[in-house]
Specification:
The protein is an alpha+beta fold and about 350 residues long. The chain is built from eleven helices and nine strands. It folds into two domains: about 5-90, no CATH class; about 110-340, 2-Layer Sandwich (BirA Bifunctional Protein, domain 2), CATH 3.30.930.10.
């Protein structure tokens, strides 16, 4: 068979094999069959050494033309097979855009976040600024500058998580008050300090090793207990109703003098007596008082010219009262059934 006829036969055979291929692997096998080292084309190329220079040139041009055409056909076939595969996959995964979408459930705020936000909004409306500070605090700010020197018996009331001899997880947000007073350098201060605090306590229905506080501090000239009572009465009337009354009972805290326990009239029975207030008509909610002169002095204030009051609200305590929750652990168990109620 002459060279030209042999090439034409190989071309027809190769085209047929590539056209009939249904997978990329079959196309590559056909390419190897007609262009590989053991192909008929390679055997044909081996006969070129027996030809004249003119014959080798003519045969080489025909073989190169055959190889170029076949390689182009292989690429086109592979591209066509890959396109067909993608189109088939898209057709099988076709989405009906007219179908209604899946409903995305809206989340909601945690009950503690709700109470904290409500208190912050109320206090901000009265001119308080929000102050923040570290949760890992030094003993100096957490105890000593709050009139609680080392060995003070009141420290035993706050069994603490110490990290080093002088560093601990803060037991109250009062260190933020100290930091703010030091930064103010004798100028008036009006802040609230919300945040998490930590105490080594047994976890039960009313106690937790971690809980949230929102402390308030006002320091300035002519600040009195009347200002403290008016502030707390405004907060609790906004939280529980306009008919709520506030009363003070004498107490003791090392960082305030005088110190008071603060009760407000029961918002359920309006002071008549019910299970919520234990038939007393009043509910104890927080401690407060006038800032102790020693605390003011240590922060750089003259107690003869500047006075102040401070209070500390337990966020969980308020949330439990407002929402009728009987176990503080519910706030931290992340039970969706509980959280969905809010």
């Amino acid at each position: 068979m002459e060279t030209e006829e042999l090439l034409k036969s190989l071309e027809e055979e190769a085209n047929l094999a590539i056209d009939n291929a249904s997978q990329v692997q079959e196309v590559n096998e056909a390419k190897a069959q007609f262009l590989g080292k053991k192909s008929k084309l390679n055997a044909l190329m081996a006969t070129m050494r027996d030809l004249s220079a003119e014959g080798r040139k003519e045969l080489g041009e025909k073989i190169n033309s055959f190889k170029t055409a076949l390689e182009n056909k292989v690429r086109e076939k592979i591209q066509a097979l890959e396109d067909a595969k993608i189109n088939a996959m898209l057709a099988s995964q076709e989405i009906d855009v007219t179908l209604p979408g899946k409903q995305i459930m809206d989340g909601n705020l945690h009950p503690l976040t709700k109470i904290y936000s409500e208190i912050e909004e109320i206090c901000s409306s009265m001119g308080f600024k929000v102050a923040d500070g570290p949760e890992v605090e030094c003993d100096l700010y957490n105890f000593e500058m709050l009139n609680l020197p080392k060995g003070h018996p009141a420290r035993e009331m706050q069994d603490s998580y110490y990290i080093t001899e002088n560093m601990l997880l803060r037991t109250q947000t009062s260190p933020v008050q100290i930091r703010t007073l030091l930064a103010a350098k004798g100028e008036p201060v009006k802040i609230i300090c919300p945040g998490k605090v930590y105490r080594r306590d047994n976890d039960d229905a009313t106690h937790s090793h971690q809980f949230m506080q929102c402390e308030g501090l006002v320091v300035g000239p002519n600040v009195t207990m009347a200002d403290l009572k008016g502030t707390l009465q405004t907060i609790f009337r906004k939280l529980f109703g306009e008919d709520v009354k506030v009363r003070f009972r004498p107490s003791f805290f090392p960082f305030t003098e005088p110190s008071v326990e603060v009760d407000f009239s029961c918002f359920k029975c309006h002071g008549e007596g019910c299970p919520l207030c234990k038939q007393n008509g009043w509910i104890e909610v927080l401690g407060a008082g006038m800032v102790h002169p020693n605390v003011l002095k240590m922060a750089g204030y003259d107690p003869e010219k500047m006075q102040g009051f401070a209070f500390g609200i337990g966020i969980e305590r308020i949330a439990m009262l407002k929402y009728g929750i009987d176990d503080i652990r519910n706030f931290y168990n992340d039970d969706v059934r509980f959280l969905k109620q809010f």
